[in-house]
Design a protein that fits this description.
Blueprint: H1 2-30, E1 33-46, H2 49-53, E2 56-58, E3 65-73, H3 74-77, E4 86-90, E5 99-104, E6 106-109, E7 123-146, E8 150-158, E9 161-167, H4 168-171, E10 176-186, E11 190-199, E12 210-212, E13 215-231, E14 234-235, E15 242-250, E16 253-258, H5 260-263, E17 269-270, E18 274-275, E19 283-288, E20 296-297, E21 303-321, E22 323-325, E23 331-335, E24 339-347, H6 348-353, E25 360-364, E26 371-375, E27 378-380, E28 386-391, E29 395-401
Parallel strand pairs: 1-4, 7-10, 13-17, 14-18, 22-25
Antiparallel strand pairs: 1-3, 2-7, 4-6, 5-7, 7-9, 8-13, 9-12, 10-11, 11-13, 13-16, 15-21, 16-20, 19-21, 21-24, 23-29, 24-28, 25-27, 26-29
Keywords: Membrane, Transmembrane, Transmembrane helix
Protein name: YbbR domain-containing protein
Organism: Proteiniclasticum ruminis
Length: 415
């Protein structure tokens, strides 16, 4: 069995040698005429300026190649590779368009023993697009971080925009040219020259476009900061019958930034005017902050909430004993009533605290001689209390000399 397998292998080797020898003989001795295709032969484009003159642009990433049919002696045909051929496509004076263009080729160099005539009708496929120029802004993607107590107020570029050129399908993708970088601990204005990159709406890089300049001068403005209180600007008085118990504002302070010449002049930030005469209940009022020109609210605050607490007035009746003052020595006084009923009005919280002792009701007898008088007591109320009425409003006062009895009225004799 092993002997039989050895004989078969030897037979195969001999057959292979004979076949190869025959092929060598045919190629080198007989050398018949053969036809073969040569694939992926690169094409060189000439007179590219004709593309620009027709307001078109060559699309990128094109491997412009053709397939050539060659004919000749087998020994030459089988040795043919793409690098043996030089193929050009002359764009001069050709009518071109956006999209697919079939351009005639010319085979300017090839092995002398080969015939490439069958390839004369082969065309190179060239993809073009409309040429577009568009001005786009420069945007900052520069991470500028201010030092403590400072604020990055803004970034400007010189120039502020750049012209982007190239195939329309790529130029139309460009949203802006981004200046990228990073800098920390800024305490003063900062300047740097940065390279630019074209980006789309998703901030992805757009390739295959041209723009000039490639670099831009960036200027960053840095301001000092300080915290100042927010004050409420009010006008008018709360309507009659109400008392304003408290006013507060949130936030109570605001962090601002600006040039030192302006910042040093500001000690507070006020709200827009709040008209108290239009308010008749407690509540919150959103008011715009009045930020001076040239000053920046660091945290973006543009308004504050003003909280007002109002209390409606109520009434209360208090009986108060009437006292006299200023009576001369040696005189005595008799009042038609020793007390008055006083109706007072004020906030309920204040009314709850008021007592007879906190009110005075006095009749001033200074300089009065013995006799009868009709006098009005002077009522003094606590702060925030309003006198509504006093009953009786007028008291009959009789002043006599001490020790003298008050005589009854004389009777008129009967006629």
């Amino acid at each position: 069995m092993a002997k039989q397998k050895g004989s078969d292998l030897l037979l195969k080797i001999v057959s292979l040698i004979l076949s190869f020898s025959l092929w060598i003989y045919i190629i080198n001795v007989e050398n018949p005429i053969k036809t073969m295709k040569v694939y992926n032969v690169p094409v060189r484009l000439e007179n590219l300026e004709n593309i620009t003159e027709q307001n078109l642009a060559l699309l990128p990433n094109q491997d412009i190649m053709v397939t050539l049919t060659v004919k000749g002696p087998a020994s030459e045909v089988y040795r043919s590779v793409a690098s043996n051929f030089r193929v050009v496509a002359n764009l001069d004076d050709l009518p071109l368009k956006a999209g697919i263009n079939e351009v005639p080729i010319e085979i300017t160099s090839y092995p002398a023993d080969l015939d490439v005539t069958p390839s004369s009708n082969v065309k190179a496929i060239v993809y073009l697009d409309d040429y577009l120029e568009r001005e786009v802004p420069i945007v900052s993607q520069f991470d500028a971080v201010a030092a403590d107590g400072h604020y990055v107020a803004g970034t400007t570029f010189n120039p502020a925009s750049v012209m982007v050129k190239g195939p329309a399908q790529y130029v139309n993708q460009v949203k802006a040219l981004a200046a990228r970088g990073q800098r920390e601990g800024l305490e003063e204005n900062y300047k740097e020259i940065l390279s630019l990159v074209a980006i789309d709406e998703k901030d992805q890089v757009v390739n295959h476009v041209q723009f000039s300049p490639l670099y831009v001068e960036m200027n960053i403005e840095v301001f000092s900061t300080k915290s100042v209180p927010i004050v409420v600007d009010t006008a008018g008085e709360v309507p009659e019958g109400f008392e304003l118990l408290s006013t507060s504002v949130a936030p109570a302070t605001i962090l601002i930034a600006g040039p030192d010449s302006l910042l040093n002049q500001i000690s507070e930030i006020s709200t827009e005017e709040l008209n108290l005469s239009e308010i008749n209940e407690s509540g919150d009022h959103l008011k715009r902050l009045v930020i001076p020109e040239g000053i920046i609210a660091v945290e973006g605050n543009s308004s504050a909430t003003v909280s007002l607490v109002l209390e409606a007035f109520e009434t209360k009746t208090i009986s108060k004993r009437v006292t006299t003052i200023g009576m001369a020595e040696g005189l005595s006084v008799t009042l038609s009533t020793n007390s008055v009923n006083i109706v007072v009005s004020g906030p309920q919280s204040a009314l709850d605290e008021i007592t007879e002792e906190s009110i005075t009701a006095e009749i001033d007898l200074t300089g009065l001689q013995p006799g009868e008088y009709e006098l009005t007591p002077k009522i003094v109320l606590p702060v925030d209390m309003i006198e509504v009425s006093v009953n009786p409003l007028v008291i009959s006062v009789t002043i006599t000399v001490e020790g003298e009895e008050e005589l009854p009225p004389e009777e008129t004799p009967a006629g």
